[in-house]
Amino acid sequence: xxxxxxxxxxxxxxxxxxxxxxxxxxxxxxxxxxxxxxxxxxxxxxxxxxxxxxxxxxxxxxxxxxxxxxxxxxxxxxxxxxxxxxxxxxxxxxxxxxxxxxxxxxxxxxxxxxxxxxxxxxxxxxxxxxxxxxxxxxxxxxxxxxxxxxxxxxxxxxxxxxxxxxxxxxxxxxxxxxxxxxxxxxxxxxxxxxxxxxxxxxxxxxxxxxxxxxxxxxxxxxxxxxxxxxxxxxxxxxxxxxxxxx
Length: 246
What we know:
By secondary structure, the chain is α/β, with parallel strands linked by helices. It has helices spanning 15-23, 38-46, 59-67, 97-102, 120-132, 138-141, 161-168, 178-187, 216-226, 228-236, and strands spanning 4-9, 31-36, 53-56, 73-80, 82-87, 108-111, 143-146, 173-177, 191-195, 204-210.
């Protein structure tokens, strides 16, 4: 059987290989991984690019692909909240987070795939701008985009990109998914993270979809992720469980 293709959102770049390792399919002999923005990957599948398993940062994409018969089945994989990473010394709380975000003395950054300028992360900046009464585009103008490894400078081997950048590149605050925040804090113990007020938060309801041509390995991985063991593993990386029957 030829190698199969797993497509996944750019935010899964570091996490997906770890999940495959937990499942027991980490040797990569039966599949290849392709990452990008969820919308762009959906468009590739719709245009005929082979994909046997798709993990999207928005369940809207996986649902549409199944409804239009590009893929066979889909489910909600989990909820990945956007949070604010900050130095422990700042003592940021959910209640004070908005004030810190609007304060220009703090260098703000936001994680992004760098592949989709209309992505959720920029929507969140607009929400913060509106709620905080700032001028349109003001917050975006002073926010640094961090792509998690596809940029210069890159973190040295063994360091997490986000944890290292906040330590060495004068970044005070970082908006990112909780899965990324957990890795950054593990890398840099001087960091912590807090949840954002619901009024500005843009959460990622991740979806997963399977092709009718998926191999037993990928079918098993799909079922494992949605089962109790896989969901428990995802929880350890920052996901919250979601109802996954569809």
